[in-house]
Amino acid sequence: MAKEEEEFRIYNTLTKEKDAFKTVVPGKVGMYVCGVTAYDFSHIGHARAAVSFDVLYRYLLHLGYEVTYVRNFTDIDDKIIRRANEIGEDPLSLSSRFCNEYKTDMAALQCLDPTHEPKVTENMEQIKDMISQIINNGFAYTVEGDVFFAVDKSPNYGKLSGQDVNSNRAGERVAVDSRKQNPADFALWKAAKPGEKSWESPWGPGRPGWHIECSAMSARYLTFKFDIHGGGIDLIFPHHENEIAQSCAACQESNISYWMHNGHVNNKNEKMSKSLGNFFTIRQITERYHPLALRHFLLSAHYRSPLNYSVSQLEEASEALFSIYQTLQDCEDALLPFEGSLNEGVGQNGKVIRITSDAQICITKLREEFEMKMKDDLQTAHLLTGALQGCKKFINSSLSSLKKKQQKQQQLSLIQSLREVKKEIETVLKILGLLPHLGYAEILKELKGKALNRAGMEEADVLNLIKERTTARKERNFSRSDEIREDLAKKGIELMDVGNDTVWKPCIVIPVVQEETPEVIEQQKPPASESS
């Protein structure tokens, strides 16, 4: 059973306030999020929406709710048909291919699979039935095989966005068509053009308009009354405004309790868009940075705030993740020899082992901060920089203490403390989607591989330079030794002297590399035969 619902507050675009979360059905959540139009590789704006609502999904599960999460695919529309014609591919083959590519990206970002991922082409009967209901209820009209929604018939049109009917003016967000009763009327069904993919309907062959598909699919999987509808902030008007109008026209009892919207990802304070040529695909980023570094970056600002893309922030996210995972790996390694000393916090003599006061303070701070920030409209950015860092510092300092000779009881207390603090960190990482599926050693190896890729080096190159630097130091050629260290640091490789050995780890590039453009990233990609 879910925890008390009044604990969780989310910003509701409909009320313009943070509302206490109360579900339609106690203990259960219905959530619909608008997915992608599948005609190309998805960009990091799509990634932000997916990650934002994945965190919401994970948090609702953490609170104990049974969640039905629906995220759709638009697999037929004007963009898909246009792209398919350009490259000579069947539209449904094209969209199917990019639906699968999107799923690959989501898996890399560790986004949980939604409960349902419906496609438009799999829901044609439901869409046509809803259009028929809207016509029968007097909210739509037909013209030469097209069906238009009559916005003048919708008394509450604009209640989500605050815009009036005239804001939906033709030529900007809706097509110019002199056959419309009002220029702001929008298509529910589009008559087929010659040679175009189409489906039979009572109004003739054609295909759905964009807005109706989400109303029909959400009603099919969640009914007309459900809890959360989400998407990017650019969908508020006209898409979500039109969804409300047509859903209410089909069923007057239609009601969605909370409308949630994530902010844009910007490039130099401009929204990323294909028309400006300033967008980055998820693949472009994850070829150079680990997908979890991209996820960390996307969580580094509140989901409703605009987020400026920058190489320096990706560098910082990558380094922060490496540091967290290295600490957890070091903790695992240090605890391995003591695996049999404790069983669920009980020593071999049956005595309960208490954790240290410092460990308890760390755990309490992290737990309280987590609950406070997450229940206040998912304030993920604070979780990455606050008490989590305090827990990391506790582990690192305790690992040093564990190496020192101490009384048996003190040692057991420290071991139990490390276990509990590590467990608490992992709980937070899991809900943020940052707990890797792989072991820490493997994920650290992957992060190092991405750093080498950005540096244009193989690990053998780094190891050879380490050998050269060791020789230079023995020969007291400190200028060459420093030169090697500095040159590697400029490429994002940091050397660390540990006892008599030298090891390396990724670091933030010094100086931070010039901010990249999509074109620069393409130019920097190695030939296909050399890519990792």
Automatic annotation (TrEMBL):
Name by which UniProt lists this protein: cysteine--tRNA ligase
One of the protein's GO biological processes: cysteinyl-tRNA aminoacylation
Necessary cofactors: Zn(2+)
NCBIfam families: cysS
GO cellular component, one term: cytoplasm
Gene3D superfamilies membership: Cysteine-tRNA ligase, C-terminal anti-codon recognition domain, HUPs
Domain of life: Eukaryota
Domain tRNA synthetases class I catalytic: 21-318
EC code: 6.1.1.16
Family: Belongs to the class-I aminoacyl-tRNA synthetase family.
One MF annotation (Gene Ontology) recorded for this entry: ATP binding
Presence of the UniProt keyword Ligase in the record: yes
Entry keyword Zinc: yes
Pfam family, one: tRNA-synt_1e
Source organism: Turnera subulata
Matching InterPro entries: Cys-tRNA-ligase, Cys-tRNA/MSH_ligase, Rossmann-like_a/b/a_fold, tRNA-synt_1_cat_dom, tRNAsynth_Ia_anticodon-bd
Alphabetically ordered keywords of this record: Aminoacyl-tRNA synthetase, ATP-binding, Ligase, Metal-binding, Nucleotide-binding, Protein biosynthesis, Zinc
